[in-house]
Structure prediction request, 305 residues.
Amino acid sequence: MLETKRIGNKIAEARKKMGISQTELAQQLFISPQAVGKWERGESMPDITTFDRLAAILGVDLNYFSESFQSSVTGTSTSEPLESQYVELSTEQQKKNLSWDLSKLNLVNTDFSGLKNLHEKFSSSNMLNCQFIGSEMSGLILKNNNVVQCDFSNSDISKSHIQNSNLGSNHFNNCSLRETEITGSYIQNCDFTGADFTRSKFKSSGIENSIVTNTLWNLTSFTDTYFGEITFEGRLEECSFENCGFKKVKFIHVTLINTFFKNNKKMKQVEFIDCKADKITYAFLKTNLADLTGITLLNVGEDEQ
Prediction:
């Protein structure tokens, strides 16, 4: 109880130093202000995934919250550094034991590159600096995961489910994320260059400070999603943004086709530079009070490129 109270005080102290209210912090974490209040009063504690998001939002290291934080989230002694408590598997072990359930583990410097049938094996795990390059991961389920500094480049992660997870500083270059559902998750400092998000769904999630160059957005939907310091380029076709929030977001040289905007927040702060939109998308943007000065209407037939 004393530990819970002390961590609550730490959260409150860092939040006030950042100059944000409980409500503003809750919005960035996609939780209720009441939950933040309970933390700060010492009535409850965040889970490991939320602790990582808190650290990023409040600009502190995880160790700031408590010296015993490592033991509370790993179930191990605090006498060892966090990284030393992760499990490291050899390539030979990985190939021989693909049937192993790697849920609820801490994995570091593990190489799964080029392997297949990596599906429901990783829920509630922490992964640090792991390699999944060119792996077959279609139908993957990540639930309550903390994934940091991992490389998924050129992998198939289509039709996957990413739920209540934290993804930080990962590479998803040229990945297929088609028909993937991302719910209640926070994505920060990730590289999605060349990734394909066709028919993917984002819900109650956040994506911040991430690279989306040459990323394919087609029939992609965003609901209750926060965007921070994101620059869209290229083409968005038949996408939808509903009840989303924006901070330092830019659309540069973007063509918007049949893209739906409804009840979005702070659209006036979204910057459109040398963009084009069809008539229906332009109307949706206008209804959302977006600044249309950087957008020109497409001529009839011009969107058929």
In short: The two ends are 62 Å apart (CA to CA). Helices lie at 2-18, 22-29, 33-40, 48-58, 69-74, 91-96, 279-287. The chain has two domains: 2-78, 99-297. The domain at 99-297 is CATH 2.160.20 (Pectate Lyase C-like).
